[in-house]
Amino acid sequence: MEQSFNPSKNMYFPSKEIIKKANVNDYESLYAKSVKDREGFWAAEARKLDWYKKWEKLLDDSQKPFYRWFTGGKFNIIHNALDRHQKNATRNKLAIIWEGEPGDVRTFSYHALNREVTRFSNVLKAMGARKGEVVTIYMPQIPELVVAMLACAKIGAPHSVVYGGFSVEALAERIEDARSRILLTADGGFRRGKPTQLKKIANEAMQRSATIEVCITVKRTGEECYMENDRDFWYHDLMGMPIANSGCCTEQTDAEDPLFILYTSGTTGKPKGLVHTHAGYAVYTSTTYNYVFDIKPEDRWWCAADPGWITGHSYIVYTPLINGATVMMYEGAPNHPYPNRWWQIIEKYGINILYTSPTAIRGLMRFGASWADRHNLSSLRLLGSVGEPINPEAWKWYYEVIGKSRCPIMDTWWQTETGGFMITPLPIMPLKPGSAAKPFFGNEVAIVDEQGVEVKQGEEGNLIIKNPWPGMARTILGDPHRFVEKYWEKYSKQGWYLAGDSARIDEDGYYWIIGRIDDVIKVSGYRLGSAEIESALVSHPAVSEAAAIGLPDELRGNIIHATVILRQNITASPALAEELKMHVEKEIGPIARPAFVEFAESLPKTRSGKIMRRVLKARALGQETGDLSTLEE
Ligand code: PRX
Predict the structure, then answer these.
(1) Beta 300-303 vs 353-356: how paired, if at all?
(2) Residue whose CA is at the smallest distance from ligand 1 atom 5
(3) Which helix (H) or strand (E) holds 522?
(4) Which end of the chain is less crowded, N or C, counting CB atoms within 10 A of the terminal residue's CB?
């Protein structure tokens, strides 16, 4: 049944069918209740999961902003995502349907996934993995990536997944920061018909950061790769050892024990290793998933992100399994071999919910509706979007061409730091294309000025969150001071969380996210810091200084523009610009490759020596440069 549209408000209303099915049918009253008695709300949600031992204190705020949730409780996310399903009919259900880019297919029932995870947990322990020690995972999107994450969680070893699209320096830096002794990787994966060279990159990264003692490699592409004696082992060899088949009990972790570290880019310096914990993260994300995507036992769910980012951690790996859903995973590019690949997958497997990014939608929209029109997409019930603001044109295309004007789009705003959705529609809500709608249960969100005063309706300001929530990151690994400084210092008087985004609220209380207020650059929804790109450029022998900014791009949201000052006696040339682009690609990864490299004699700086990226951006866009009173030269 089609949804109805109100043109004067530009609002899309849900159909009766969607409303009837919804897991929540009155947002306003449940929201009011959830903020009035936040602890009561989260306690009720937490009771829906299985605990080894119930918590003693729901929220410990004695050391703000280092909030602790469910303290005294014993809880392991794996007990909820796998173990408990083995006792009922879910054990026979498909947990994962995986399709490789070349078209190979593998499926895992909950029973089979649990068996594989248990076997790999034994291997990890035999190879020296220990509770509390970070294991780094650098893999393509293959089932073993999920198995590796789950096995680490099972034994209480926090994982640090480094996105398979990252390259040498990005990987080396993350290994070193986490002081990982164990690295899990693969020879490569398939992307646009070609094998990628993950092990080769991993080898170079291990040379740069000397902490890795054991590296386990999954054979995926069969490409030859260098294996070092006593350090490198094949996954299949280890899984073939008798020890893999012994039993392995899930570690009875404390509620606040770290589940994973996930690195994300900030404004300055090295990427930050955000720490998420077993219980709070599980409670928060599974609640958001259940209410926002209306999950039903028969659903086939497809979050077309990569597990290497927070979206994949929360909504490919952990929450769908906690909720007993069937997860679709696809290894490769959306347009390989043709731009109908995704639509073909939806038809072939009968996918009910698709969750993806505006960049992916815009990318597929380019090829026109005919690629989607040749497939039966009637299994779809709900759609989702994440990672960057979705422009109304892409929203409408997604809604009409893919969802056939039947499927509400959940435009979810959140961050690596938040663990799960923070501002989001629910299926029962009227939708406005481009707006992430309203705060999720328990959250009080506001738009404020520099002093913390709420701005007027319709005006732009800083997005802040007034309360703690169970899924929040607990700290930055090894740098609690930076955690305070980045997120809590600006509004320390009020105790609010600074999200780093600007936004506005309209007359209906709908939130519109505008973009980052700092130097974080979102390229195709991927988060990169200007500082990382700049330090990659400066690591090239020809470069003395560099500044990177994001410029608007119709397809990718932003593209990177780099301004470079060369060392003495080095001559600028188009060939050198190309070489520098390649250098960034090799150090950080293809997503960080600058679209433009321009050479300059100097960079605009403040008297205290900070690069004024605002000035560079205005100049690149041909706009007024604004107030230059702090400019040194
Ligand atoms: O700027 C916001 C944007 O993505 C940032 C967080 O990036 P990351 O930690 O990589 O997490 C992305 C996936 C959760 C935010 O600060 N962002 C995320 N979702 C949206 C968004 N911007 C607008 N609309 C969204 N739905």
Answers:
(1) parallel
(2) 415
(3) strand 520-523
(4) C
User: Is residue 513 lining ligand 1, measured as CB closer than 6 Å?
Assistant: yes
CA pair distance 55, 73, nearest whole angstrom:
4
Chain centre distance of CA 547:
26
> In a mutational test of the pocket of ligand 1, which residue from 385, 527, 532 has the highest number of ligand atoms less than 8 Å from its CB?
527
**What is the 8-class DSSP label of residue 319?**
H
Q: What is the DSSP letter of 383?
A: E
Q: Does 264 contact ligand 1 (Cβ within 6 A)?
A: yes
Whether ligand 1 lies within 6 angstroms of the CB of 361 is answered as no
Q: What is the pLDDT of residues 448-487, one digit of tens each?
A: 999 999 999 999 999 999 999 999 999 999 999 999 999 9
As a whole number of angstroms, the distance between CA 54 and CA 51 comes to 6
Is there an atom of ligand 1 within 6 Å of 502 CB? no
Amino acid at position 35, single letter = V
DSSP 39-61: HHHHHHHHTTS--SB--SEEEE-
The confidence score (pLDDT) of residue 6 equals 80
**Tens of pLDDT along 254-273?**
999 999 999 998 767 788 99
Q: Is residue 626 scored above 90 in pLDDT?
A: no
Among candidate residues 548, 468, 560, the one with its CA nearest the CA of residue 523: 560
Give the distance, in angstroms, between the CA of residue 580 and the centroid of all CA atoms in the same chain: 28
Indicate the residue type of 449. Answer: D
**pTM higher than 0.85 for the full model?**
yes
pLDDT tens-digit map of 91-129: 999 999 999 999 999 999 999 999 999 999 999 999 999
In 117-269 the beta strands, taken as DSSP E runs, fall at 135-138, 159-161, 182-186, 190-191, 194-195, 214-218, 232-234, 258-264
d(CA 192, CA 189): 10
- Indicate the angle between helix axes 530-538 and 574-587, nearest 10 degrees: 120
State the distance from the centre of ligand 1 to the C-alpha of 357, rounded, in angstroms: 10
Interval between CA 499 and ligand 1 midpoint (Å): 10
Q: Give residue-wise pLDDT tens across range 386-422.
A: 999 999 999 999 999 999 999 999 999 999 999 999 9
Looking at the DSSP assignment, which residues form a beta bridge with residue 135? 159, 182
Token pair for 211? 């902490």
Separation between Cα atoms, residue 80 and residue 72, nearest integer Å? 18
465-495 in b/e burial notation, b at 16+ Cβ within 10 A?
Answer: bbbbbbbbbbbbbebeebbbebbbebbeeee
Nearest protein Cα to ligand 1, atom 4? 387
Mean pLDDT, the chain, whole residue set: 95
Q: Are 196 and 140 in contact (CB under 8 A)?
A: yes
The response to whether residue 414 sits with its C-beta less than 6 Å from ligand 1 reads: yes
Report the nearest-CA residue for atom 6 of ligand 1: 415
Q: What is the pLDDT of residues 52-83, one digit of tens each?
A: 999 999 999 999 999 999 999 999 999 999 99
